[in-house]
Amino acid sequence: MSRYTGPTSKINRRFGQNIFTASKAEEHKPYPPGIHGPTKRRKVSEYGTGLNEKQKLRLMYGLNEKQFRLTFARAKRQGGVTGENFLRLLHTRLDNIVYLLGIARTRQAARQFVCHGHIAINGHKVDIPSYTVTPGDEVSVRPRTSSKQLATRGTEENQYRAVPAWLAMANDTLKGVVNRLPAAEELPSDINIQLIVEFYSR
């Protein structure tokens, strides 16, 4: 399955949480999408529960199925707690770092920002959203007028959104630094990662 490009409000309503940035649609229609959304309640099987968690996380980070599965396989090979490894790999993707630093309003916008060549890692242009950042990496906006204008607009829109403690961002120079890897408690807590591990272990 390719990356989702349809209505984001329907996905938020389907899972009952903000997979994508919240919109007014969820406020007016706080129930699943579809003609039977307001009334129909289906019992979800154990397999369906695991599948839903997997889909939530995949859509949240904007990966297709193959990318998602390969990232899980990579996490499994690392040793240690597979679920934490998996979340950490997703969380340290370059497009997610650009989002967390407040350069872009959403993960989708951050992915586009990276793909269009606006970002440099340690002074070198990187246009691969799946690039994994490591502690000590400097993430900066390239010194082009268009890049700086887009980034400045993004930081102004996100000025009230806190940057995680494991990152540091200087809005005046449009540069961020990865101080360390995120701890287990700093990873997304609204996803039941154990269900995803069990889903892929079938």
How would you describe what is shown here?
By secondary structure, the protein is an alpha+beta fold. The protein has helices at residues 8-15, 24-28, 46-61, 65-77, 82-91, 94-100, 107-115, 145-157, 193-200; strands at 119-121, 124-125, 138-141, 167-170, 175-178. The protein has two domains: 8-89 and 188-200, Ribosomal protein S4/S9, N-terminal domain (Ribosomal Protein S4 Delta 41, Chain A, domain 1), CATH 1.10.1050.10; 93-181, Structural Genomics Hypothetical 15.5 Kd Protein In mrcA-pckA Intergenic Region, Chain A, CATH 3.10.290. It contains nine helices and five strands. A five-stranded antiparallel sheet has the order 2-1-3-5-4. Helix 4 (65-77) packs across helix 5 (82-91) and helix 5 crosses helix 9 (193-200).
Largest sheet: 5 strands, antiparallel
The whole-angstrom Rg is 18 Å
Distance between the termini: 20 Å
Residues in helix, %: 40-55%
Largest beta sheet: strand ordering: 2-1-3-5-4
State the CATH class of the largest domain: Mainly Alpha
Mean pLDDT comes to 85
Report the portion of residues in β strands: 5-15%
Based on CA inertia axes, which overall geometry fits?
A: globular
**How many strands in all?**
5
Supply the CATH superfamily name of the largest domain.
Answer: Ribosomal protein S4/S9, N-terminal domain
Low-confidence stretches: none
**Element-by-element helix/strand order:** HHHHHHHEEEHEEH
